[in-house]
């Protein structure tokens, strides 16, 4: 049997081709988000970017950003079925992909901390409850965009030491005017702000920088995780670059609330391969 697993955000899609008796093959394409791409757009993207020679696929599992609406899922399903000549195509949200990758078939609370943030309670089969993430203006607490926003705000308001301010402008080659322009007048300010997490990572040894991370995670826990009634009786597992890079700080804040840290994975793909192993023998 041969099957295909995809984990897609708006920026990139990671694909894994699994064939019986062979090592899995992985590749990447541009992200496939049906909020922004039509069925024809998705097919054209695959024609341009997907490696040739991917034939004989019997089933596809596609986990993607924007795949939370039946009409959008149908768009992706039709495009994949047509391109890969595959009748069995299952579409699910990136949050479901994270839940299956982190928890398998066990219940748990799941958090995604990347450019944005999200969370859910997963009963081992389905996502039972989900606190609305709301994007980086109204929510996305603990995300890369949130960390970057807190850092920039504290710098420009003069809250952080002058040493850090000098380091920031020297390393990022930006200016006050450039930040205001990028945040308020250019597209994708959330990605722009999230890029500053590389500065935070390099200078996490400064107590003021670490405090920004701790406060962001405190906000994510208080405004999201604490709303799940199962919070005290189950582990909380995470995926996403921010959770992975700042695992030490995240675990500290979870323990502050008396919560149980679970599995941490930088990306869901390895967990999804493990989850779908059983499908090779069914």
Question: Overview of this structure, please?
Answer:
- This protein is α/β, with parallel strands linked by helices and 282 residues long.
- The protein folds into 2 domains: 2-86, 2-Layer Sandwich (Nucleotidyltransferase, domain 5); 106-266, Nucleotidyltransferase, domain 5 (2-Layer Sandwich).
- 44% of the residues lie in helices and 21% in strands.
- It contains 13 helices and 10 strands.
- A 5-stranded mixed β-sheet has the order 3-2-1-4-5, with helices on both faces.
- α2 (70-84) links the parallel β4 and β5 (88-93).
- α3 (94-103) crosses α13 and α10 packs across α12.
- It is globular and about 60 Å long.
- The protein starts with a strand and ends in a 7-residue tail after the last helix.
- The model has no long low-confidence stretch (mean pLDDT 91).
- It comes from Odoribacter laneus YIT 12061.
- This is ATPase BadF/BadG/BcrA/BcrD type domain-containing protein.
What is the fold's blueprint, element by element?
Layout (H helix, E strand, L loop, with lengths): L1 E7 L3 E8 L5 E6 L8 H11 L9 E6 L5 H15 L3 E6 H10 L4 E6 L3 E6 L4 E3 L5 H4 L5 H13 L5 H11 L3 H9 L4 H6 L2 H6 L4 H17 L11 E5 L1 H5 L1 H10 L3 E6 L3 H7 L7
Parallel strand pairs: 1-4, 4-5, 6-9, 9-10
Antiparallel strand pairs: 1-2, 2-3, 6-7, 7-8
């Amino acid at each position: 049997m041969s099957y295909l697993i995809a984990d897609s955000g708006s920026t990139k899609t990671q694909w894994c081709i699994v064939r019986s008796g062979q090592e899995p093959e992985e590749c990447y394409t541009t992200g496939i988000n049906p909020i922004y791409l039509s069925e024809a757009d998705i097919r054209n993207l695959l024609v341009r970017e997907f490696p040739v020679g991917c034939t004989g696929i019997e089933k596809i599992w596609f986990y993607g950003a924007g795949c939370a609406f039946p009409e959008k899922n149908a768009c992706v399903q039709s495009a994949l079925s047509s391109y890969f000549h595959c009748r069995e195509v299952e579409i699910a949200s990136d949050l479901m992909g994270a839940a299956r990758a982190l928890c398998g078939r066990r219940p748990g609370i799941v958090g995604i901390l990347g450019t944005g943030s999200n969370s859910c309670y997963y009963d081992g089969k389905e996502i039972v409850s989900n606190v609305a993430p709301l994007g980086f203006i109204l929510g996305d607490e603990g995300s890369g965009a949130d960390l970057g926003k807190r850092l920039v705000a504290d710098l420009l308001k003069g809250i952080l030491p002058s040493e850090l301010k000098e380091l920031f402008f020297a390393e990022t080659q930006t200016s006050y005017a450039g930040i205001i322009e990028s945040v308020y007048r250019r597209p994708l300010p959330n990605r722009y702000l999230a890029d500053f997490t590389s500065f935070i990572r390099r200078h996490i040894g400064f107590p003021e920088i670490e405090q920004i991370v701790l406060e962001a995670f405190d906000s994510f826990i208080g405004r999201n995780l604490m709303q799940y009634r199962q919070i005290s009786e189950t582990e909380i597992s995470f995926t996403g670059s921010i959770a992975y890079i700042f695992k030490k700080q995240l675990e500290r804040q979870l323990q502050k609330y008396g919560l149980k840290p679970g599995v941490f994975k930088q990306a869901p793909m390895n967990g999804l391969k493990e989850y779908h192993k059983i499908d090779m023998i069914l």
